[in-house]
Amino acid sequence: MLLDPVLFAATALVFGGAAAVYPLATTAAAGLVLLLLAARFSAAARAVAILAFAVGALRAGYAVRSFESARVVARDALGAPSRCDLEGIVTSSPVWLNGAASYTVDLTRGECGDRSLPRARVHLYGGPDVIGRGDRVHAIADLAPLQLFRNLGAADPTPSAARSGVLLSGGVLSLDVLGRGFGLRSYIDRARAKVRRRIVASFVPEAEAMARALVLGESDLPEQDTLAFQRSGLSHMLAVSGTHLVFAVASLVHALGFVLVRIEVLACRFAVRRFAAMFGVALALVYADFAGGSGSAWRAALMLSAAFLAEAVGRRPATLRSFAVSLIVVACLDPLCIFDLSFGLSVAATSGLLWLGRPLSARCDRVQSTPLRFLAKSFAVTLSATIPCAPLLALLASGVTLAGLIANVLAAPVGEAVALPLCLSHMIFARAPALERGTALVASGALLIVRKIARYAASARYLALTMPEPNRYELAVLVVLVAGLVALRGAAFGEVLGRRSRVGWLALGVGALLCVELATRRAGQPRGLLRATALDVGQGDSNLIDLPDGEVMLIDGGGFVGSPVDPGKAVVLPVLRSRRRTRIDVAVLSHPHPDHFTGLRSALAEVDVGEFWDTGQGEAEGAGPIYTELIASLRRRGVPILRPAELCNRPRAFGGAVVRVLAPCPSFTPGRGANDNSLVLSVQFGERRMLFTGDAEHEEEGELLARYPNELRADYLKAGHHGSRTSSSDALLASVNPELATLSCGVRNRFGHPHLPTLERLAEHGVLALRLDRTGSVQVETNGQELTARAVSAPY
User: Fold this and answer.
1) Cβ neighbours of residue 35 closer than 8 Å, sequence gap 6 or more
2) Residues linked to residue 400 through DSSP beta bridges, in sequence order
3) Who is most buried in 602, 608, 637, 795, counting CB within 10 A?
4) If you average pLDDT over residues 333-352, what whole number do you get?
5) Whether the Cβ atoms of residue 230 and residue 462 lie closer than 8 Å to each other
6) What DSSP string describes 537-555?
7) Residue 303, class by beta-carbon neighbours within 10 Å (0-12 exposed, 13-18 middle, 19+ buried)?
8) β-pairing, 583-589 with 608-614?
9) Would you state the pLDDT for residue 383?
């Protein structure tokens, strides 16, 4: 097993970044890895690795804290979403997504009415495609604070947000370029814009987005195709991966060397191949930037540049050392690079090829038939890159598919040998229209073949291996497991004893993974407890209730009107997966408003549903196509849909917890607003009770007080209507008398929720009010006697 002290230190530097966010799991894993590999490295190498780990952790911690501090300042300075007058410098290469430019700007001036914005980085959508980095622009834009979905048990979104540095975002209404940028990056962006226009003009519409992904790194595929490529394991075919970059740059460098060595005057007097290699150093970096600058592209470019640089100075390129240099440079530039999934996949795939590819390919040499040997080696290469990526692919698509191995073998010749070179060469044929159209047509055909392979592989669900999304502790165990296998390989044992030691270590590691998984499932599906989690879905509502018998109830799923962000996919499903939940026993829609039902449509489509509770007002009076599709899909699946007539005055018991529907009873009031027809649920377990009021306002609150004057007492209140002044009246608070209330609101809401009068009323009644836009998700738990609560963070 090849080991390199520089690579050891580089890996420590990268993984140190994770310790800033997940200190316990990361530090424990790092300590065990150091113990396991101590004998394979000198004391000096170990000391350098420890120092690198500490430096990585400190730099990442500083980056996260600085970002969070700046985010809070920008959030409070802007307040509610506002129309703003902005000036600034474009700092990221514009990409074209959903028919509009997307880029970041560092503000030099920002005025939002009578408020001034601090200097901040903002993400803007819209504007011409001719802008580039370094341009000074003036824009009128609708800005809002950055929305982070922070939920207990789910991955922390802060490090990824900190990597971008974006604090505010919004859509551009008008934009003027005050001054053009100057320099290489500006010219690269102009070239990107020209190539984009030629791709749109010459490729067939069905293949145009795939060509842009392959050439420019713009992930703008339709949702169906995005899922197909993810589930089939073919995402790398439409990304600027290491293989892609190496192919493109190495081909040009070798072509240059081939030409120069045949020019006798130059070849006799100069080492022209060294000159070509030095050209490759610059070309790799420029091409990585031109192709979108993803983490995987930069890592591959840096590794290739290191190899070319060694060749240029007359040294033999060292693969491991080049790999290590690429990791060090990326980690120095981005202390949080470990939270970049594309970078992680690139590192994992490269590691697999370095350490698994050679022995697997060597075994394939025993195959006598040349065609079979070629297929076997193709499978070996795919397998060696896929195995280390499997845990990360589970984060991306909740599993891998065996069909992906076949799909890669079939798609690679078409994608990498036909589509990739044609898409890249297409860029130089703009002045030859016939050649450009012909190249685009053939490349389009190749891309569509790759897409068809991806769709077939993704649809072969019988070959899919559903993997639970690994948490931080499982990833830590995997790292230690791999380190142990590395330590045992080549250790001073006999061949038989060494093999037995590795098998024993592998069994121990699998056992540890199973223990962590069982603990995760037990924590995610508690028994004998009532646990309510107010999910952070932004300006919407969603509550997950774990019942004492192990069943689970989901009340609402959040949603944003006119936004591509779906909280069902962004929040509800990740939380369910983190808890290993594949079934919702009772799904409840409190009332038919988009900020409550939009997320339900996507979330419920991915899990089994026992029954669905609904007021019926949306079906009777209309609530739009998303609601209609939700109800229709549930009926097609045979899910019972229960209405107030079947729920009122019929308490349901779930392992000692009693759920009562208090309103609207016996049915919704026709013609009245949906808020005041909200389903109101009381959940009691032992001596403790929780009350969920949907968006009930004063009218429905009054009916509750009249009908249940002595039965509304609850320890925990899910405050109505996001903390609006029209809810949570003095009379209701006096009757409920809660210890704790949560207010589900988002930093991007235009309604000013929660309203100050509501916050003042809650304070006057001695209620601890937790705003989800400040605390993240809140979890309230009781065993029937004691009541505890915790949030992602303290209010600020």
Assistant:
1) none
2) 465
3) 602
4) 83
5) no
6) -SSS--EEEE-TTS-EEEE
7) buried
8) parallel
9) 67
Q: Judge contact between 600 and 589, C-beta under 8 A.
A: yes
Secondary structure (3-state) at 112? strand
Residues 6+ away with beta carbon under 8 Å from 617: 591, 592, 623, 668, 670, 674, 677
pLDDT in tens, 77-109: 888 888 999 999 999 999 988 888 899 999 999
State yes or no: pLDDT of 2 exceeds 60: no
Higher per-residue pLDDT: 614 or 366 = 614
- Tokens standing for 162? 């900190």
Model confidence pLDDT, tens digit, residues 162-210: 999 999 999 999 999 999 988 899 999 999 999 999 999 999 999 998 8
DSSP letter string over 676-721?
Answer: GG--EEEEEETTEEEEE-TT--HHHHHHHHHH-TTS---SEEE-GG
The residue to which tokens 């996507």 are assigned: 602
Q: Taking each helix axis as running N to C, give the angle between helix 495-524 and helix 472-488, from 0 to 180 degrees, rounded to the nearest 10.
A: 180
Which phi and psi (to 5°) does residue 135 adopt?
A: -65, 140
Integer Cα distance of 146 and 169 in angstroms: 6
**Distance, CA of 599 to CA of 540 (rounded, Å):** 9
pLDDT of 114 reads 86
Contact 53, 19 (CB under 8 A): yes
Beta bridge partners of 659: 652, 683
Characterize the bridge pairing of strands 136-145 and 641-642. unpaired
What is the average pLDDT across 416-430?
A: 80
Burial of 755 (0-12, 13-18, 19+ CB in 10 A): buried
pLDDT score of 351: 77
Distance CA 210, CA 650 (A): 54
**What tens digit of pLDDT does each residue of 773-787 get?**
999 999 999 999 999
| 8 Å CB contact between 769 and 739 | no
Q: Are the C-beta atoms of residues 124 and 170 closer than 8 Å to each other? A: yes
What is the 8-class DSSP label of residue 726?
T
Q: Is 446 within 8 Å of 495 (Cβ atoms)?
A: no
Helices (H), 5-42: 5-19, 23-37
- The span from the CA of 452 to the CA of 414, in Å, is 12
Strands (E), 15-119: 82-90, 95-97, 100-112, 115-116
Which of 350, 356, 354, 345 is closest to 389 using CA atoms? 345
Identify whether the C-beta of residue 594 lies closer than 8 Å to the C-beta of residue 628: no
Give the dihedral of Cα atoms 69, 72, 78, 81; nearest 10 deg. 130
Burial of 632 (0-12, 13-18, 19+ CB in 10 A): exposed
Q: Which two three-digit tokens encode residue 367?
A: 């195959």
Which DSSP letter does residue 129 get?
A: T
Widest distance between CA atoms in the chain = 101
Starting from the edge strand earliest in sequence, which strands make up the sheet with 768-771, in order? Answer: 652-654, 657-663, 680-685, 688-692, 716-718, 740-743, 768-771
State the average pLDDT over residues 516-533: 92
The bridge status of strand 115-116 relative to strand 608-614 is unpaired
Instruction: Name the 3-class secondary structure at 85.
Output: strand
CB 123 within 8 A of CB 167: no
Task: Indicate the length of the chain as a whole number.
Answer: 796
Q: Give residues with Cβ within 8 angstroms of 432, minimum separation 6.
A: none
Q: Which two tokens stand for residue 607?
A: 């899990």
Whether the predicted pLDDT of 1 surpasses 50: no
Query: Strands 552-555, 583-589: parallel, antiparallel or unpaired by DSSP?
Result: parallel
The rounded distance, in Å, linking the Cα atoms of 589 and 593 is 9
Instruction: Give the pair of three-digit tokens for residue 774.
Output: 């400040």
Q: Token digits for 724?
A: 């609006």
Structure-block tokens of residue 221: 């595929």
Instruction: Give the neighbor-by-neighbor strand order of the sheet with 543-546.
Output: 641-642, 608-614, 583-589, 552-555, 543-546, 530-534, 778-782, 787-791
Tokens of 667: 């049915």
**Residue 235: φ, ψ to 5°:** -60, -35
